[in-house]
Amino acid sequence: MASPTHRLIAAAVDICIILAGMGVFWVVLLLAGDGIPVSRQTVPVFALVGLALVVFYRALFCLGDADTPGMSMTGLHLVDFDGRRPDRHRRGWRQVASLVSLLSAGLGLVWALVDDENLDWTDHISKTFPTVSE
Q1: CA pair distance 125, 5, nearest whole angstrom
Q2: How buried is 89 (Cβ within 10 angstroms: 0-12 exposed, 13-18 middle, 19+ buried)?
Q3: Alpha carbon distance 77, 20 (integer Å)
Q4: Residue 102 CA: distances (Å) to CA of 8, 28, 31, 75
Q5: What's the number of domains the chain is made of?
Q6: Domain range for residue 55?
Q7: What is the pLDDT of residues 102-118, one digit of tens each?
Q8: Residue 132: phi, psi to the nearest 5?
């Protein structure tokens, strides 16, 4: 089973990839105009673009039935409680469960620090967890 630190490193890699996508968005805006106007009206648009990138990134690997680059680079892969690779349906539940974990002010993620098996709410709800590849 992956430790919270191992998971954090994989998540950091995935976040860097999403931030790179956001950077590409900003560069396109810069090249297309006279700069990036930052105002009360544009900040929500930029936030929505960032949210859309996160949703698209997560959906891509969920629907593709694959592990994220962060998981692959850190030697992790997702399995269900029976040790099998989860199908799209189970991966979809994992995405919903991760939203629940985040919307609870991160309490679902912090749960892994006190759980005997280092499982967070996402793992318990979806009945899947990341493990170190053998």
Answers
A1: 21
A2: exposed
A3: 23
A4: 14, 30, 35, 24
A5: 1
A6: 4-132
A7: 889 889 888 988 998 98
A8: -75, 130
